[in-house]
Amino acid sequence: MNRKYRKTVIAGNWKMNKTPSETKEFMTEFKTIMPKGRWCDVALCVPAVCIPAAVRAMRETRVGIGAENCNANASGAYTGEIAANMLVDAGCKYVILGHSERRAMGETNEDVNAKVLTALENGLVPIMCVGESLEQREQGITEEWITMQIKCGLRGVGEDKIRKMVIAYEPIWAIGTGKTATPEQAEEVCESIRTVIRKLYGAKIARAISILYGGSMNEKNAYDLLAQPDIDGGLIGGASLVPEKFVKIIEAANQPTI
Ligand code: 13P
Predict the structure, then answer these.
(1) Residue 237 has what pLDDT?
(2) How far lies 105's CA from each of 83, 98, 99, 209, 231, in Å?
(3) What is this structure's pTM?
(4) What are the pocket residues of ligand 1 if the criterion is a CB atom closer than 6 Å to any ligand atom?
């Protein structure tokens, strides 16, 4: 990370876990042990039905609540979908877009791009996810693949809007597998993402954008990952479901030594 130029963001992605009642329990516990860190932004992205409980519980805190997806359209006949303005009205600050688990359900780069544009228009902070499969890594096409995801996902995003975004690098082979990318592997890709942003938007914006790592990040490996110069935070699945573990990751991000 580099606190001088950009924000550190520790974000939880609960995926399809926890009911609204369990959300309330988590937040009560989390609030009592939450570090008073000044250095990092904390986000919790939760299932849509848990958003009201999460927002209510975190109202007086610095923790931002987010969603895990949104629809690209403003409104209309899209049964079961949720529009960006609904998330804003419900109190969300963030929205995860393009997670590999959603891409695996058929979401394309074009879909992700449309959602990013809608989210930004509505004032949400998109956490746009990119990442390669094990097969792609073994074929040596990680950089090309991720460059394509970034370029396609950011199409039409102007200089004024890109500053509001967060990018998350999540290698698919590291998600939920307990197989974390080494700090060097994660840094290499995060650095190349920053290079792509530099080519698209210039050095000043590239220096200011927060790039997170996600994929089996936990209370044990967080410090070493966050100590890398181009890793500005984490997008955390499993470990964000347990207050003590999530808190330890926030504490790692708050260490003055990095
Ligand atoms: P895990 O931390 O459970 O590997 O999940 C990572 C992830 O997909 C966060 O979006």
Answers:
(1) 98
(2) 19, 11, 10, 28, 28
(3) 0.98
(4) 13, 99, 170, 175-176, 214-217, 235-239
